[in-house]
Amino acid sequence: MTHRTKSWRAGLRRGGIELRHLLRNGKEMTGHLTNVTVALLVAAYISDDVPGTRTPMTHLVLAGFAAYLLFQVGLINLPQILVTEREEGALLRLRATPGGIPAYLIAKCLLMVALAIGTLALLLIAGALLVDGPLPHGPGDWLTLLWVTTLGLLAVIPLGAAIGAVLPNPREALALIMLPTMGLLLTSGTVFPLTALPAPVQHVAAVFPLKWMAQGMRSALLPDSARTAEAAGSWELPMVALVLTAWAVIGFLLAIPLLRRAARRESGSRLTARRRKVTQSGALAA
Hints:
Elements: H1 3-24, H2 26-44, H3 57-87, H4 90-95, H5 100-130, H6 139-166, H7 170-187, H8 199-205, H9 209-221, H10 237-265, H11 268-285
């Protein structure tokens, strides 16, 4: 059995274990369900149509939230998990394990993919049942939903792993991630039409994957008539695929080297010093 095969088997086995632990963790599952609930509540209070179309704004918002939930799993949840586990000594242990870093990354990818797909399915099904939300209309739309979801996750999960490898600590990670992420939520056409934003803002948003993930989701979930509200007047699916593929390549090129670098920098003395600092902070707070 080759070294690479062993890494894949170890990663898949570890990913399955972590997924079972997640499903048994009521507190963490409640957090993910809360995101879906917030999306449904926002959609329920919107009654207008997308400007220039007969498409309900509710459908545009739910398509945007579908993209954002995938984006959030990769670029908020995953970095926080990685930083927390690094602080607890996970990377230090992996450094002494042959193929440990690739197997670890495979496990996290499996966990995040399962979480993202489950969250997306819950949002679309609950949206259709509770607020008359959109669903794909035919085989072509289902196929588009599949490849946009796949490419979107490939674009953000490795990138999230790379970010998690360089963030300083769990206490600062959320603050450092949330501000730019919320900025992208508001400027990527996820909660209102992109054409309502100034042209420079549209150009900046077009650099990042969320804008294209949301556009791909709209193409799968909304009728063709809704594309007239897009900045280019079309879904631009080839560009969606190109940008998401480019981000996937960038993420994969960065993730494993940065995780290996983070593992090399770990040592028993650094881990002990961090634990001592946390203990002292708790004592001072008490």
